Amino acid sequence: MLRFVLRVLLIFMPLVRWPLRAWIRTHVSPSDLNELAIDFDKPVCYVLPVASLLDWLALEAVCDAHGMPRPYLAGNRPPTVKRAVVLALPVGRSRQRSELQRIVTRGLHDHSFDVQLVPVSVFWGRNPVQETSIFRILFADSERSSRLRKILIVAANGRNTLVHFGQPIDYRNVVDASATPGALVRKLVRVLRVHFRRQRAATLGPGVSRRAQLIDTLMADPKVVTEITETARRERKNVAAIRVRAREYADEIAADYSNIAIGFMLRVLTWLWHRIYDGIDVKHLPRLREAAHGNREVIYLPSHRSHMDYLLLSYILYQEGLALPQIAAGVNLNFWPVGGLLRRCGAFYLRRSFKGDRLYAAVFRTYVETLVARGQPMKFYPEGGRSRTGRLLAPKTGMLQMTVASALASSGNAPVAVVPVYIGYDRVMEVKGYFDELRGTRVKKGETMGDLVRGSTRVLKRKYGRVFVSFGEPIELQRFADDHLPDWRDRMTDLAVDSRPKWLQQFTDALADDVMRGINATATLNATGLACLILLGAPQKSVAEDEMVHSLELLARLAHACPYSNDASAPEPDGAALLAEAEPLMRLIRAPHAWGDILTVDSRQAVLLTYTRNNVMHLFALPSLIANFFAHFEQRNEKALLDDAAELYPLLASELFLRWPVDACRDALVDAIEGMIECDLLSRTEKGALRRPVAGTQTFAALMSLARIMREALERYAMTAMLLSHNLEVGVVERGRFERQCQLMAERMALLTGRNSPEFFDARLFRNHLQTLVKAGLLRPEGNKLYIDESLRHLAEHALRLLGSDIRQTIAHLTSMPQLEDATPGQTLG
């Protein structure tokens, strides 16, 4: 009977195929099907989780559109190189079982027979929300549905269909000559069912209750109930009034996922990305898919440089067929109409500080615990806010600590992956406002609808180049805990609800540092960043065109010769092409000259370009440090150079989140030296010393540009160390006052040396630098006091030796001046 029905359907299929194909609008995952590495010289067999002619039509449409082998119903014919087939996982003693068994039997008898089994999942609409309405029940996609319901699902969701291709299964490795066909079929079915179950979870995520139900769940949680009672007792108010306040908090926090809003934003963002950007360059997606398939939950921790970051990652994940995360967003973004729209796209809101409001903290913590317990993917920014300088900020660990504690306490051995994500831009649209804030001429304020309209009008008139998104090596949370906190299971069991012990803070700090290093390890070196490194390294921010082309090519070669990490990427060393790409985005000014054009920028644009430079400067941190030893010397002893560079390395590593541990930095420095020699930036003499290129050559100019990448950082270290060494007789400084003095000193130095770089005297850099000296044992904190170690004097002299005589004189003069305690940084540069 079934065969008769199939024959009838096949006869009438041409009458319905093309109308259905016209209605269905498919997206494919992965977007780059080359990731599948399908060998078209071998037969292909597509495997669907359930038997469905409509799923087959969607698969056929994708295969036709992307040049994949077209799927035919298997029937009694096995797949061949010229004829791919499609079958479904068998249910009971079904026809599909006999088709799969036929393929297995042939493999057992014919050892030359091979086939690629490609699992294919078809999702009609992608709404994971569990609703109780009849409308949702009828039209929501499900793994198994009746024919009538399937038609309704396709009619409702056919315009939003995802077809996901899994990695081909190695058929010959599965076939065991000693097994029976029946046993092999069962083995294949088990493998494929696990794949389809994981793929569905990775694409749709966990089922999410309606928002009202979720809020009711929060309000009924014992921790929230207890805190409501305690708050009412402390404030001497009615419990009902406090419960109303708690519900208001929950309503302010909770996301309200809507498939309609997601579809709307998908169309808006697709238009927007093409309108203001030249493309999105995404790297390391296969490892992300593996993490999404192999872990109960994925926590995304991206760098934060622009408001565009909020939906960029969700846009990419949606396009690639992965479950959307819930996004922790600052409550400052919860203004009409943006707040509601972001909330429906998965944003939940948090206040900048919970201090003094235990009830809010309890509600928010319970919300996070609920997400973690359900395996809901999450995303938040470890830096806490957008970077105003382009470099990574020191992580703020409050949200991370809360999430980690919830994940370890609730998941046990269920795997949780923490994924660092690098996000970079050719140009950041907010950079002008960032530097106005650093100068003190603009006060940071909350966003409003008026700001959005004014900003959108300006933004849509310009192009901002490309966006670079790269997924770092996932950190398996449980394995990280096993390595850094072996008894974490016992500790988590005994952890009180509101307890935040020192060991948990230390563990979270270690994880946060790993995350920041992971973000930097997967950075993308783009043409604009490379050109900014060179131009801003020129003394007058002016470079001859031929010198720029040569330096671009040389530094791109260096990035390949001694790569920062296996995950970092660099452009091809074609200087002319790199300049052509970077020139319009940097707004370079060409000054014609008979001997060749001069490239420069106006002073304001030079300041803005430092942001782009800071995105990628860490990629050249070690070569730049080495180059600084040759700024004033033609040659240096290699061993002495390595000793001196290793002494300065911890300071750079702390500021830039460099990936090498302190005890491994010498090997990394040796690799950098070898890369510089390969690129002719250095050479070895017959006696084994290192020598720089001849002064006046283009290679020498490139070496000096390389040295200037880290020059300002070295100057800050020298200033701080010298200022501290002048207090050695007293032996102690007051931390807050000393930070202000460092900032004032850097500000004055910027004025005296003609710099136009507000980030040079950014208070956060000095704060982080002092913390590094504490870790190195050169400062000992006690309360708000810092006690100075005698060996700091040697560090100061060492750092000064790398600087020119004019800078040394300026620093020496500034450190000998009496310090004004009532001055405020930024007063003179407004």
UniProtKB/TrEMBL annotation:
- Catalytic activity entry: sn-glycerol 3-phosphate + an acyl-CoA = a 1-acyl-sn-glycero-3-phosphate + CoA
Chief location bin = membrane
Q: Which GO terms describe its molecular function?
A: glycerol-3-phosphate O-acyltransferase activity
Q: Where is the Phospholipid/glycerol acyltransferase domain?
A: 298-426
Gene Ontology cellular component terms for the protein in this record:
plasma membrane
Subcellular location as annotated: Cell membrane
Chain segments annotated as transmembrane: none
Q: Which InterPro entries match?
A: GPAT/DHAPAT, GPAT/DHAPAT_C, GPAT/DHAPAT_LPLAT, GPAT_PlsB, Plipid/glycerol_acylTrfase
Q: Which UniProt keywords apply?
A: Acyltransferase, Cell membrane, Lipid biosynthesis, Lipid metabolism, Membrane, Phospholipid biosynthesis, Phospholipid metabolism, Transferase
Tell me the route in metabolism or biology where this protein functions: Phospholipid metabolism; CDP-diacylglycerol biosynthesis; CDP-diacylglycerol from sn-glycerol 3-phosphate: step 1/3; Lipid metabolism
**Pfam families, sorted:** Acyltransferase, GPAT_C
SUPFAM superfamilies to which the protein is assigned, alphabetical? Glycerol-3-phosphate (1)-acyltransferase
Instruction: Output one GO BP term.
Output: fatty acid metabolic process
Write out the domain note.
The HXXXXD motif is essential for acyltransferase activity and may constitute the binding site for the phosphate moiety of the glycerol-3-phosphate.
Question: Which NCBIfam families does this UniProt record tie to the protein?
Answer: plsB, PRK04974.1
What name does the UniProt record give this protein? Glycerol-3-phosphate acyltransferase
Q: Which organism is it from?
A: Salinisphaera hydrothermalis (strain C41B8)
Which lineage ranks, top first, belong to the organism behind this chain?
Bacteria, Pseudomonadati, Pseudomonadota, Gammaproteobacteria, Salinisphaerales
